[in-house]
């Protein structure tokens, strides 16, 4: 549970961003939850520090439900949040593939464009890594996301080959 002063709002926003970044789910006003696994420890510590620096009052608890249905409900809420994250990731994979297709269609085979696309791919890789680490219950979309990331890697490699062919005036 975190109580952060109402003003200035930047403190509340910083704590909220940190909790969202680690994948915490909001259980109510100022109450956030994550499964009790090590991957969340550093993020929880950062949220506590931000709360303290803002003059707020953090309180962390290790809680268990009163029955198995409570653990199931937390798992379902957490998995639903990860499913939404994966859906956003999959949409960005589609945008990445569309961007590569556009560059091929307009024959924009430059090193600068390749570097930009590789940076976008690196962002997708980091995002996938972070989502995988947070997805402790393994949302149904995780396998599709892994496959789509591999497709993005392959598409970028094909684009890179076309860039190098163009730079060296080789026929594909």
What does this protein structure show overall?
- The chain is mainly alpha-helical and 172 residues long.
- The chain folds into two domains: 2-58, no CATH class; 68-167, no CATH class.
- It has five helices and four strands.
- It has helices spanning 9-22, 41-53, 68-105, 111-134, 142-167; strands at residues 2-3, 25-28, 31-33, 57-58.
- The strands form two sheets. Strands 1-4 form a two-stranded antiparallel sheet. A two-stranded antiparallel ribbon has the order 2-3.
- The longest helix has 38 residues, at 68-105.
Main features:
single chain, 172 residues, mainly alpha, 2 domains, two-stranded antiparallel ribbon, 5 helices
Instruction: Give the helices and strands as they follow along the chain.
Output: EHEEHEHHH
| Number of spatially distinct domains | 2
Mean pLDDT: 93
Q: How much of the residues is beta strand, in percent?
A: 5-15%
Taking strands numbered 1, 2, ... along the chain, how are they ordered across the largest sheet?
Answer: 1-4
Low-pLDDT segments, ≥5 res? none
Query: Count of DSSP helices?
Result: 5
Largest sheet: 2 strands, antiparallel
Number of strands: 4
* Fraction of residues in helix: 55-70%
Structural class by secondary-structure content: mainly alpha
How far apart the termini lie comes to 59 Å
Basic shape: elongated
Q: Please compute the radius of gyration using only Cα atoms.
A: 21 Å
Please specify the SSE layout and strand pairing.
Layout lengths: L1 E2 L5 H14 L2 E4 L2 E3 L7 H13 L3 E2 L9 H38 L5 H24 L7 H26 L5
Antiparallel strand pairs: 1-4, 2-3
Helix pairs in contact: 1-2, 3-4, 3-5, 4-5
């Amino acid at each position: 549970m975190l109580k952060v002063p109402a003003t200035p709002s930047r403190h509340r926003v910083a704590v909220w961003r940190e909790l969202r970044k680690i994948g915490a789910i909001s259980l109510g006003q100022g109450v956030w939850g994550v499964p009790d696994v090590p991957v969340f420890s550093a993020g929880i510590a950062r949220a506590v520090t931000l709360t303290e620096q803002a003059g707020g009052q953090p309180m962390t608890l290790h809680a268990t439900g009163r029955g198995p249905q409570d653990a199931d409900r937390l798992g379902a809420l957490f998995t639903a949040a990860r499913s939404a994250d994966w859906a956003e990731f999959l949409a960005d994979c589609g945008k990445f593939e569309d961007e590569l297709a556009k560059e091929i269609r307009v024959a924009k085979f430059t090193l600068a464009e390749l570097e930009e696309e590789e940076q976008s791919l690196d962002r997708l890789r980091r995002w996938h890594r972070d989502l995988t680490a947070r997805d402790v219950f393994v949302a149904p979309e995780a396998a599709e996301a892994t496959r789509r990331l591999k497709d993005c890697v392959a598409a970028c490699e094909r684009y890179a080959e076309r860039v190098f062919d163009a730079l060296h005036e080789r026929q594909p």
